[in-house]
Amino acid sequence: MNDELEIHFLELEKFIRLKRRPKDALEEWLLYFNNIVGEEMEAIAMGNPGIRKAMTIEQIFFKNQRERRLYELREKAVRDEISMVAGALAEGEAKGKVAMAQEAICKYLDARFPEDSAGLQRDIQKINDIVILDKIINKIYTVNSLEEAAAIVREAAK
Hints:
Blueprint: H1 12-16, H2 25-33, H3 39-47, H4 49-63, H5 65-112, H6 118-126, H7 130-140, H8 146-157
């Protein structure tokens, strides 16, 4: 850390058992966040304009079905967006790995068997399963002929 950052841990549970009036605005807000209800919370709200405003908005929000529904829809949209982005990132990462594996195998085949490997390279480009490509990569570097390489590709693709 550094000298410009402070971290404070506020234990809400401890404030539920508070047997005295709150000393400052922080304790008042902690009681509010603990959902204290009744006369005690109303007395605190009368002395703290911020809490009074929050309670008023909260009451309006809970009374108005339309506003609550709009809020829930906004929250759902945010969660859906986060989920879609995470899914797209994972999908893009998987496609990138497939492309890299295909490229590595094809480069090896082209370097090892330059004239004859074009057909096998086309077969490799059709494989989109990273597990199969990984099996091929693990074995293909030990082949001595194009026929052995083709056999490894056929075996892995089964």
